[in-house]
Each structure stands twice: as C-alpha cells, then as structure tokens.
Amino acid sequence: MKRNYGRVALICLAALIILSIGVAASPKTARTKVQVISWWDFTNSRPLIDLKAKFDELNPDLELEYIRIGTKYADKMLVMIAGGADLPDVMMIAMDKVPIFAEKGAIMKLDSYIESDYKAEMAKLYPVVVDALTVKGSYYAMPRDITSKVMFFNKQLFAEAGVAIPGPDWTWADFGALAKKMTRDADKDGVIDQWGFYFPKYNDGWTDWLMQNEGGLVTKEGQSLLGKAESIEALKFLQSLCNDKVVPTETQAQQYGKAHIAPFMAGKVAMTAGGLSASVDLINNGVEYEVRPLPKGKNRINTAFVNAWAIPAGAKRPDLSWRVLKFFASKEAQQIALGTNMGLPARKDVDVSAFVKARADNKHFIDSLAESKPFPTPLRGVDFFKLVEKEFDMMWLGERSVDDAVRAVEKKAADVLAGKM
Question: Which string of DSSP letters, residue by residue, matches 85-114?
Fold first, then answer.
C-alpha cells in the first residue's frame, strides 16, 4: 500500500498547532488563597506587604490574603472561633493573649507539627521567644517578632539645650538628673512646654523599671509581685518623676496623638523608651534620634514582648495554616521583620550586619535581646492588668500614694489571678 506521508505530516502539524493554542489559552494553575487575619492595616504596612511577596514567591501553589479586625481584635476573634464562623487560616496574636486563648481551646496546639517538621529549627529561636509561645509545656504560636526596650533621645532637643546624650553605661541616678534638666518652662508661666521623659501608664510601659529594681509585676504562674519592697521602691521613683512634672500626664501626652511615641515625635518629650517599631514613625517624620540601653538599676533588664501567629481552633485547613506559620518563623521572614523595622528577629541566625551598619546605635537594639526577660503572661493576666491600671490611675496623677494603690491591687489580686473575679 502506498502511504501518503505528506498528508500525514500535515495532519500532525495541524494537531500540534491546535494543541499549542489550547495550552497557551488555558489559564494558569490557580493558587489556593490562605487567609491571615490581624489588627494591622495591611494596605499600607510594608512588613505585611513584603511578607506576602516573599511567601507567594516561595509557595507558587498558595497566595496570602490579609483580612483585618481594627478594634477589639482579641474579643472578636474569641467570638468568631466560639461561634464556628468561617475562620481565617492564621491569626496574629499578642503574647499576653496566648495563655487565655490556649486555655479556652481557641488556638491549636502545634506540638505535632513542631515535632515532625520544625524541631531542629526551635533551637534557633531566642529563649525569650520559646517562653512566650508555650503554655504548660505545649507550643501554641510561632513568632512574628520581638519588641525589646531601649531609650530614645530626641537629638534636636538635646542639641538646643547643649546637653550631651549619655553613654550606654548610664544609671537611674543619671537618668533622673537628666530628665529634670531636659524639662522646660520656656516662658516661665508655670506651664511645662517640654518634658524630660514620657512613659505610657499601661503595664508594659513601666514594668521594666520594677524588674530592674529586682521587683516585678506578676509571675507567669499568677502571683502578684507588686507588694515586694523592691517593686514599691521602683513605683515611688516613677511617681516622683510624675510629681516633679518631668513626665506628662496621659491627657497632656495624648494631645499630640494616641501612640506612645507621639509626644516625643512632636518635640515635646526629650526621652522615651520603646522598641524598634517606634523608629518607623520617627524616620518617616524626619525626627532625628539616638538610641541607648535603658538606664541601669540594680540590674540591667528590659521586658521583651513577643507578637506571634497562631492557628484558630476549627480552621479547616490546618496543614496549610502550618505552612504559613512555618514561613513567618523562618529566617527569610525574620529578616524581613528586621529589615522593615517591624521588630527584632526572633531567631539567632538572622543577619544583623546591615542593620547595625546602617546606624551605629542600632547595636543597642541587638544587645537588648541578651538582657530581655519575657513580659509576664499569667493565664488571667489581662484581667489583672486591667485591675492594676484602674487602681494606679490616680497614683500616676499624684492623688494617691503608691502604698495605697498597691494595697488596693493586692486585696483583689489573688482572686483575679485565680479567675474568681
């Protein structure tokens, strides 16, 4: 039989053309969206934007999708989880909320994932991070970043006053004298125009000072430390700064904005303590600053606050959720956290050389990690913190003694921390 090779070749060529057109026209494989909820405005948050870009690059089958709850985040998340609503795959969570969410069964234990997929990596996390993410020996979250405390100095205010910014070995005595020296009543009308120091009156705004004096706020196990003589001594030191009007009241401070850095940024406060993320607003607003360690008390300690990511209980795709958490805790993601000034890295293997080279005083942020102790997070800590803030309000205004305020807290502390109130 005579074969028509030319006709066969034409048919094959046509089939190949049709096939190639079909392949070209077919849509790309769709990515699976993984929802991440937080309290941040993700539309203008460079850290979240950069984290999404890197995650999507490393995971071609997945795509991060951010959603937001702007107010009463923790309360609304508990309601969502309890109600069995359509839940996001991953949620941002602050370390002080981890124990209560764990106790209520609102976030998943991660032990099985860590044991099978991340055990070797855990040794690369700072101990303060591991402490923050565990409850009764089980892991419930993975790190977003660390906030350790340093002192910010407004360079312009110090230059105008002709006062030198202290070296890193300064003490409480140096600090107290400097705070008074940098407080101004420029027109001598009895109204302070510039304060030497500002600290927010919520608990993690002043707990460092108690710990530096060998006192404290509360233990992780749920025992108040406010009644210790060392705690009372530190509170009296802070109250004296308020009484001497070198620290603005909350009403005075908040006329410049709600953020704790606002009066410093407005050039009304010479010194304030804070973490790396505060530098973002300072840089964006052209505020010249320098950084030093917190002044040394009886010891040198600062409280570290760890923000984190968790899997809501009832999330329908926990294996996908874990992939996101594992990425957020990775070296690549922690490098982004540092590079965008979101916070200090939770891992010891992140390259900090470019960060320190960019500003010599950035070294103090890195050094602060070695001096950090975790902010205390007992199970009923949120209720205890509310009690303390309520009873201390008038104390900070000088209208109640430290001893009276502490007694009022201690009277209820045991019951609140035991969940009886």
Answer: ----SEEEEEGGGHHHHHHTT-B---HHHH
DSSP for 26-82?
Answer: SPPPPPEEEEEEESS-TTS-HHHHHHHHHHHHH-TTEEEEEEE--SSHHHHHHHHHH
Q: Residue 106 and residue 41: Cα distance in Å, rounded?
A: 24
3-state DSSP assignment of residue 415 = helix
**Burial bucket for residue 221 (CB in 10 Å: 0-12, 13-18, 19+):** exposed
84-140 pLDDT, tens digit each: 878 999 999 999 999 999 999 999 999 999 999 999 999 999 999 999 999 999 999
CA dist., res. 246 & res. 243, Å (int) = 8
| pLDDT > 90 in the chain, percent | 88
Instruction: DSSP letter for 312, please.
Output: B
164 DSSP 8-state letter: P
Question: CB-based burial of residue 14 (10 Å sphere; 0-12 exposed, 13-18 middle, 19+ buried)?
Answer: exposed
Token code pair at residue 272: 């304030």
Contact yes or no for 148/368 (Cβ under 8 A)? yes
Structure tokens at 310: 């968790």
Q: Structure pTM?
A: 0.88
Q: Is 67 exposed, middle or buried (0-12, 13-18, 19+ CB in 10 A)?
A: exposed
Domains and CATH numbers, the chain: 32-146+305-374 (3.40.190.10), 150-218+225-301 (3.40.190.10)
- Overall size of the chain counted in residues: 421
